[in-house]
Amino acid sequence: MASFKIFAILTILLLLIVLGACNANNNSKQSSESTYSPAGVELDSKMHEQLLVLANNRAEWFLVNDVTTEALEGLYVSWSVICQNETPLAEYKGAVYEVVRPWFLEMTKMELQDLQGADRHYNLKSWTSPWAYVEEIWELNGKLIWGPQLQLYLIESGSWRYHDC
Predict the structure, then answer these.
(1) Is residue 110 part of a domain?
(2) Which residues pair with 79 in a beta bridge?
(3) Residue 6: inside a domain, yes or no?
(4) Which structural domain, as residue segments, surrounds residue 147?
């Protein structure tokens, strides 16, 4: 009878230890999962900087005086592969520089040279791997001329891409 009581107490103690260990492991797992995004890509400072640089470069390529091959390819290649599949490079130049940019200039009621002198600001608004929303604001002489607008980016094959299709 005494051995049965000792066995029962040891079993309960063992069960409590196992439950405690499982709970500690579960808390540890939840803590590590909260630091990683669902797709397993962690946004470090280098990736954050690359994202904001790409956002600014896209504006620079969009606002070039002369549509160079470098500007066109930079803008196109920074675009999501999903979007590239919908619009080939041959059609992209006309769509961006002959339709979208003239519309944008008319909408802002500004000349290209004025927009080129704008101060552009980009801030990461949200991050859920592989997606990031970047807020874009353009100002000229302290006056808001564009934004705030949200741009959607994603990571494809380790590189940031703009997604608007």
Answers:
(1) yes
(2) 162
(3) no
(4) 45-162
Strand stretches in 70-118, DSSP E? none
3-state secondary structure the chain: CHHHHHHHHHHHHHHHHHHHHHHHHHHHHHHHHHCCCCCCCCCCHHHHHHHHHHHHHHHHHHCCCCCCHHHHHHHHHCECHHHHHHCCHHHHHHHHHHHHHHHHHHHHCCCHHHHHCCEEEEEEEEEECCEEEEEEEEEECCEEEEEEEEEEEEEECCEEEECCC
Q: pLDDT of the chain along its 165 residues, tens only?
A: 544 343 333 333 333 333 344 444 444 444 433 333 345 677 888 999 999 999 999 999 999 999 999 999 999 999 999 889 889 998 999 999 999 999 999 999 999 999 999 999 999 999 998 999 999 999 999 999 999 999 999 999 889 999 987
Residue 36 is assigned to a structural domain of this protein: no
Total Cβ atoms within 10 A of residue 106: 9
Residue 99: what residue type?
V
Domain assignment of residue 15, yes or no = no
CB 58 within 8 A of CB 164: no
- Number of structural domains (the chain) is 1
The backbone torsions φ and ψ at residue 159, rounded to the nearest 5 degrees and listed phi first, read: -125, 145
At 92, which CATH number? 3.10.450
